[in-house]
Amino acid sequence: MTGFADIVLMIIALAGAGAVAGLLAGLFGIGGGAILVPVFFQVFGLMGIDDAVRMHLSVGTSLAVIVPTSLRSFASHRARGAVDMDLLRSYVIAVPAGVVIAALVFASISSGGLRLVFAVLALLVGLKLLFGRDSWRLADDLPGRAGRFSAGIGIGFLSTLMGIGGGILNNTFMTLSGRPIHQAVATSAGVGVLISIPGVLGAIWAGWAAPGLPVMSTGYVNWIAVAIIIPVTLAVAPLGVRAAHRLDKRQLELGFGLFMLLVSARFMVSVLAG
User: Fold this and answer.
1) Which residues neighbour 28 within 8 Å (Cβ) at sequence distance 6 or greater?
2) pLDDT, tens digit, for every residue of 31-51?
3) Per UniProt, what is the membrane topology (predicted)?
4) What is the pLDDT of residues 68-92, one digit of tens each?
5) CA 10 centroid distance within chain
6) Which of 119, 110, 4, 128 shows the shortest CA–CA distance to 53?
7) DSSP for residue 214
8) 3-state secondary structure string across 150-205
């Protein structure tokens, strides 16, 4: 990418993605990575970045953006008293442990393998958003210490491989365990903090000295993309938090679910074609 018009289009695309990601961070308690990863994948492709590192770079950069977004979203939700701090404290070791395991996998998995992981999980998330019901329950309350620890490891592991903040998975875990959606959304913002900070460090470690990375990258994190998107997400995230406590989110869930299915299909086609 050398043309001025291409650079302008890249900045516009990244800023737009940042706005959507920030809104979703506050609205659904997610870090916005489900939006950012596919956008990064497309933009990095336009920049001519090697396919061997493009997906890894998308995931790592997404995790870097999620750090400030999750911190601000968590602070806003906690100020409203909506966060389940007991559950969050039970995640303090479990979630980062899952992130560390994911970083080890991240360092060795191929681009195609990483895209396949994202495609499968995006498909499951999309189906849950489209067909899930608030009335679905697996239990009347959250499990005990061992169950919460296991859930934390799984949430940290899968979220890191997808480059997301864990909100989608934690929302599902909490609502299926009888907790109200607003509490799940608020608590998930804190989960994003526990995932994104060690996740960024893992992405930097996994991609250290990897060939084919673009300028201003540290491992699998590109700081140019981070610098463009973070101010936008920080500005928009509080709007999503306010909306989360007022709106019926069913239509947004349907739209986001369809988006996830399209993203899943896009990555699946790229894997089969590659």
Assistant:
1) 167, 168, 171, 185, 188, 240, 244, 249, 252, 256
2) 678 888 988 898 888 788 899
3) Multi-pass membrane protein
4) 888 988 998 899 899 999 999 999 9
5) 21
6) 110
7) P
8) HHHHHHHHHHHHHCCCCHHHHHHHHHHCCCCHHHHHHHHHHHHHHHHHHHHHHHHH
